[in-house]
Amino acid sequence: MPLNPAFSDIVELLVAVPDGDEKAVAAVRERDAQLTKPPGSLGRLEELVEFLARWQHRSKPRLDNPMVTIFAGNHGVTDQGVSSFPREVTAQMVANFTNGGAAISQICALHEINLRVFELALELPTGDITREAALDDQMCAATIAYGMEAVAGKPDLICIGEMGIGNTTIAAAINAALYGGTGADWVGRGTGVDDAGLKRKADAVDRALAHHAGELDHPLAILARLGGREICAMLGALVAARHQKVPVIVDGYVATAAAAIAHAVNPASINHCLFAHVSAESAHARALQEMGQTGLLDLGMRLGEGSGAALAAVMAKTALHLHDNMATFESAAVSGKSD
Ligand SMILES: O=C(O)c1ccc[n+]([C@@H]2O[C@H](COP(=O)([O-])O)[C@@H](O)[C@H]2O)c1
Ligand SMILES: Cc1cc2nc[nH]c2cc1C
């Protein structure tokens, strides 16, 4: 099927992505070489500073305004008994995020990271993907455009997270459509379903793939048929960030599915994304592998709500603080490498 023209703008934005700033990276490397440590000894912390420089296009990267965004949506597929929590928890947790009681609220408060929550028509769950499209193409495109607003506050780093009861089934369906395999290959326990729940999830994905067979021939068609509002909005935020010179940290299994849509349109479109962690959701490692990515952290977390991404941002803040504030061999009168 030809791609709906509603998607022309987003395809263009994903294809015409700006390159990173290698001059800025070279400047960071030059300073790093002068710091009082053996070369390379800060491992991926050194890469984090280069990542910020490359995608902020700044030889002196900043983290004055890091931001965690949580996109929240509800899913018709919860009618299939795919989650261990009821759908109303999505709205209840949104209130908890803003009232300061959620894990992400406390991570952000402790580490001085801004938190913004985007509620996406929670009273209007998407269509149940086992029997209808999640969203029509227009609504999918409009929600992608809405997600682009997330970078309007000019963050210098954006962490992309989500909340949505049922959405690990949605992420599994997207992965199965993009990469092949059956539901069983891509589902995990999400919020903690038992074996029967896991089987219902795998069946729901298989039925969704069968129902929409023949209509899954473009990543954005997959997003509309099998996705969700928060996945669309995360895709919009991710691509807008690239064009606004904002590096992105992607949270867990569900947020990775939004990046997978971008990657399937143009692999280079996610070069400005760092994958925060390997979630305990069982198929996350494979989803990362499909894109040639690895997670920065591996803490056995499976919370979502941007929590893994926020902790990766804490690592980035630490890395930049060291880069900016460590002494040089010269200033501290420490002898340099002798061989
Ligand atoms: O992103 C992850 O790695 C992840 C893994 C397991 C659960 N979650 C969160 O749990 C919710 C979805 O789980 P479920 O069981 O309702 O599909 C949703 O709010 C996600 O943020 C998130
Ligand atoms: C309580 C709860 C908190 C969450 N945060 C992200 N997803 C979640 C799912 C549940 C059920």
From TrEMBL:
<keyword id="KW-0328">Glycosyltransferase</keyword>
<dbReference type="GO" id="GO:0008939">
    <property type="term" value="F:nicotinate-nucleotide-dimethylbenzimidazole phosphoribosyltransferase activity"/>
</dbReference>
<keyword id="KW-0169">Cobalamin biosynthesis</keyword>
<protein>
    <recommendedName>
        <fullName>Nicotinate-nucleotide--dimethylbenzimidazole phosphoribosyltransferase</fullName>
        <ecNumber>2.4.2.21</ecNumber>
    </recommendedName>
</protein>
<dbReference type="InterPro" id="IPR036087">
    <property type="entry name" value="Nict_dMeBzImd_PRibTrfase_sf"/>
</dbReference>
<feature type="active site" description="Proton acceptor">
    <location>
        <position position="305"/>
    </location>
</feature>
<dbReference type="InterPro" id="IPR003200">
    <property type="entry name" value="Nict_dMeBzImd_PRibTrfase"/>
</dbReference>
<comment type="pathway">
    <text>Nucleoside biosynthesis; alpha-ribazole biosynthesis; alpha-ribazole from 5,6-dimethylbenzimidazole: step 1/2.</text>
</comment>
<dbReference type="InterPro" id="IPR017846">
    <property type="entry name" value="Nict_dMeBzImd_PRibTrfase_bact"/>
</dbReference>
<comment type="similarity">
    <text>Belongs to the CobT family.</text>
</comment>
<dbReference type="Pfam" id="PF02277">
    <property type="entry name" value="DBI_PRT"/>
</dbReference>
<dbReference type="GO" id="GO:0009236">
    <property type="term" value="P:cobalamin biosynthetic process"/>
</dbReference>
<comment type="function">
    <text>Catalyzes the synthesis of alpha-ribazole-5'-phosphate from nicotinate mononucleotide (NAMN) and 5,6-dimethylbenzimidazole (DMB).</text>
</comment>
<keyword id="KW-0808">Transferase</keyword>
<dbReference type="InterPro" id="IPR023195">
    <property type="entry name" value="Nict_dMeBzImd_PRibTrfase_N"/>
</dbReference>
